[in-house]
Please model this.
Amino acid sequence: MIDIKIPTVGESITEVTLVKWLKKDGEWVERDELIAELESEKATFEINAEQAGLLKTIANEGDTLKIGDIACQIDDKAIRPEAKVAPVQEEIKPAATVNAPAQTTSSDVKASPVAAAIIADKKVDTSVIHASGTGGKILKNDVLEALASPGRKPGQALFTRNERREKMSNLRKTISRRLVEAKNTTAMLTTFNEVDMSRIMEIRTKYKDKFKELHGVGLGFMSFFTKSCAFALQEWPSVNAYIDTEEIIYHDFCDISIAVSAPKGLVVPIIRNAESLSMAEIEKKVVELAGKARDNKLSLEEMQGGTFTITNGGVFGSLMSTPIINIPQSAILGMHKIEERAVVVNGQIVVRPMMYLALSYDHRIIDGRESVGFLVRVKELLENPELLLMGKDPVKALLEL
Model:
């Protein structure tokens, strides 16, 4: 019998939560097969079977375990069960029916004639109707109830006052603690600006197909924002620094954290040395990190560190927000929803795709001049993407201005 223990996953991590057994007690497992999903305060990871054999679970789902605790055992002396062959079933022909089929409003929805008529007349979305008839058949009263109570989920009880409690995950506890710590230990302030996204959108429309053909990845907004921030961070080094007790730590590199909404909470994987990467390399890294976040496959190394953070609330429809600093960093840039608005250009009112930008920063280390200057520089680079090639206007570079 082999003991499978909780492995060491990081210097500061002393306990984890057993989230889910991927294999059942008494089930045969192969060597190196994933058998359980664990969650620490920083990440989710899995443990593997060290040998093939029968699994005997010891810990239960939801248990908090310390590093080195035994999670399960594997009986590697057990005899491998023989594969079962499914019996061949005789083909059964459906019995003929003499009843006419119920009238339907679509190929998948059954409704009585009266109900179908009301649905067609009122153009009711059948997905919001709770069918109470036999075999999922929609009746007249079902349609009338849906019309009388718009916005309520199908079958939802009226005036319910149910509550439910769920144990907070380690990751959510960490997120909660760090957010409160950021609010309580930094002199956080937010400055705003807006950016005209016309040029970037034109470039994406013109070159997105060729870009994907050559680089195998789509051309998104994140590479433009990451590149712009990398340039601006090098010009305004205090935005790329942080306070360590009574010292300020400056960085000559830009490790940019990208806030990603994962199934278990917000995570911030890092694009390291973003200032040295091409647009395609940034896009590939974003896709890689976002995919790992969705699958809970991010390692601790991929989330530790970072000198600056970008978060995009616009993907959820946010028009404006004040993001919270990702400590110990000193600043975070918030992207938002692109919305067509009337703006004045050269004395004329025109419609442009505009985005609000928000920079939250720690006023202990970053003054107003640095924060506003940084955000204005980011705006300039985004509205004139050709500047991202060398950081300045080609004509000014030629004239050494």
About this structure: The first strand starts at residue 2 and ends at 5. The chain has three domains: 2-75, 113-148, 187-398. Confidence is low (pLDDT under 50) at residues 90-105. Residues 198-215 form the longest helix (18 residues).
